Structures are given as C-alpha cells and as structure tokens.
Amino acid sequence: MSENIQNPMNPAEALRIVSEQIQKEVTIINMLRNEVGKVVVGQTYMMDRLLIALLADGHVLLEGVPGLAKTLAIKTLSDAIDVNFSRIQFTPDLLPADVTGTLMYSQKTETFSVKKGPIFSNFILADEINRAPAKVQSALLEAMQERQVTIGDETHQLPEPFLVLATQNPIEQEGTYPLPEAQMDRFMLKLFLGYPTKEEERQIIRANVSIEGLKKANNVISTADIQRCRNLVKQVYLDEKIEQYIVDIVYATRQPESYGLGFLEPMINVGCSPRASINLALAAKAFAFLQGRAFVIPEDIRAVAPDVMRHRMGLSYEAEAENITASDVVNKIINKVEVP
User: Fold this and answer.
1) Partner residues linked to 268 by β-bridges
2) CA gap 188, 240 in Å, rounded
3) Is residue 194 domain-shared with residue 46, that is, in the same domain?
4) Is 5 domain-assigned?
C-alpha cells in the first residue's frame, strides 16, 4: 500500500489516465471524420486508413480506378485540419527538381537561392506515382523516410504533419514503372479501393449537380490537436503477447512451414521485412485509438494486417498463375497463426 502511495503511477493507473485522455481526444477525431463526411460520400474504409496513417505518422499507397474521390479525400482532410496541400501529377518526363525544388540564380545579386518544390506541404497527393521514372521516385523516397529534402548543399526539413497519399495504376497498364521494393516498403499501408454502393453513388450525383455545388470542409481541428493525438497513440499499450503475435504473423511470410502453412512456401518469393512488424504495431495502436481504447487487442492486428503486409511480399509466378494475391496469403496466415 505504501508502495502505491510512493509510486501512484503504477501501470494500471497510467493506463486509466491514458484511457481517459483518449476518450477526450477521440471526439476531436470523430469531429474531423464527420466534417470530411459532409464532402466525401462513402469511402469510410479509405478515410479510416488515412486517419490511421496520419495518427501513426505513415504514408498510404492507393490502387484503384479513376474517379473514386482519392484527390477529394486528401484535399478535404487538409481543409478540415487547415494544413497545406499539394497535388503532384507524376509523368514520364517529370524531373526530381519538379518535386523537391531547385537552386535559382539571381543575376542581380549574383547568388543562388532555393526555390522549394510542391513537396514542401503537409499533405501530398502523388498522383499515378508509377508513371514517373526511378530518379523521381528516389527523390520522393528521401522525403518520405527522412522527412527532409536536399537541394544543392542544403538540407531542408519538411513541415509536420507530413502525409503522402500516392495513387498507382495497375502495373499491366502501358507506360508504368514498377515501384522499387525499397519505396514500397516505405508506405505504411497499401489500399485497394472499390466502387461506391448504389445509394452512395446517388448521393454523389446530388452533391455534384446541386445549385450550391460541392461543399468545402471547414477547419475543425489544428495541427496541435493532431500532435496531441499522435502522442497518445504512442502511449497505447502493446502487451508482450501481442508483440509476439505480430512477430509470428510476419515470420510466417518467411518460414510458412513453421506455422503449418507449408503449402504457401512455393507462393512466396520474398517475405515481409522488419518494417512490416514496426508498421503493424504502429497501425494497430492507431486503430485502437480510433476505437477509443488505450490498449491493442488481437482484432486490431487482424484488421490492419492486410493493409500493412500485402505490398511487402514478393509472390512467385506459381501464385500469379493460380490467381493467388498477397491479400489471400495474408488472410490465410492470420487465420492460421495462433491468437494470444
């Protein structure tokens, strides 16, 4: 009893305090979600994953057909948080300087000055990222990983928060460059976006043809609110058993036979990297936060595992011949690995 008096912040008490703070702050995130929902119809899955990436300080790679509100979603999110937004259209003739910026020479002063590129914004939409060559993709890689850009001899820090939403064409389309594995690994989540429902599509028509026109989101929260929520996400409790569960799921992509999944071995050429484990833990913490919880449960891991892992595996020709996708492999793994 005296020990509790001397150390009032025992683990149970600390968890209770964090839980109370999360209950308070999650209302702010719900307010943000509602404001975005006034403009973006449907696409709940995409918006939830965008919020996970924002809270866990990650980036999102999105694959889907045109016209599914990808640009509208991130633009609306930036309006609601009052941050800067840039859209970069990736094309085969794009240069790294078109993204990061360049040095400009002034004849009047006989000096060079930095002209910053569109990457110096809080939210970046990298549209059709796989249409640009490797040099441009490498320039974006430094920005995503290091949160900085080097122009000439100077290194410039990028603003916070910094979120990249990249869209990708299906690889079988002409004029595309497959993303390097190193860059794919830098994206916390990869999402596949589907069509809206019939009712959602009716609402989309009404919103776009009404006299008032498409609404614009109001600024409802600040970057300081986001930073507070990020700090709370870091404090979400991750039990050792959950850590082991994450390791087992990721390790099953490297040694499937050790988990009774030997039939998957011919399907997987390259297993997930350690970044999969890191991002699985971070995304699960953010997911738990959005549910108003101060601790991670196995269902949180299962909810985000396909989005975190599907782009980090290299499948064999045998898997492709049998029409087995990375998502199929992840689902088989999480259905087999023992839940703590």
Assistant:
1) 315
2) 22
3) yes
4) no
Name the burial class of residue 197, with classes exposed (0-12), middle (13-18) and buried (19+) by CB atoms within 10 angstroms of its CB.
Answer: exposed
What would the pLDDT profile of 37-93 be if each residue is shown by its tens digit? 888 887 888 899 999 999 999 999 988 777 777 888 888 888 899 888 899 998 888
Q: What pLDDT does residue 200 have?
A: 82
> CATH code at 152?
3.40.50.300
Domain match, 187 and 51 both: yes
Do 187 and 320 lie in a common domain? no
* 227 found inside a domain: no
The domain boundary residue, chosen from 185, 214, 243: 214
Contact (CB, 8 A) for 326 and 311: yes
Contact 291, 303 (CB under 8 A): no
Helix (H, G, I), strand (E, B) or coil at 55: helix
Is residue 192 very low, low, confident or very high in pLDDT (cuts 50, 70, 90)?
confident
Q: What integer pLDDT is reported at residue 233 of this predicted model?
A: 94
Expressed as residue numbers, the domain containing 326 is 10-38+232-340
Which helix (H) or strand (E) covers residue 154, if one does? strand 154-157
| 272 class by beta-carbon count within 10 Å (0-12 exposed, 13-18 middle, 19+ buried) | buried
* Alpha-carbon radius of gyration of the chain: 22
Instruction: Identify the residue whose tokens are 């997911």.
Output: 287
Same domain as 173, residue 26: no
Q: Which residue has the tokens 């992840």?
A: 330
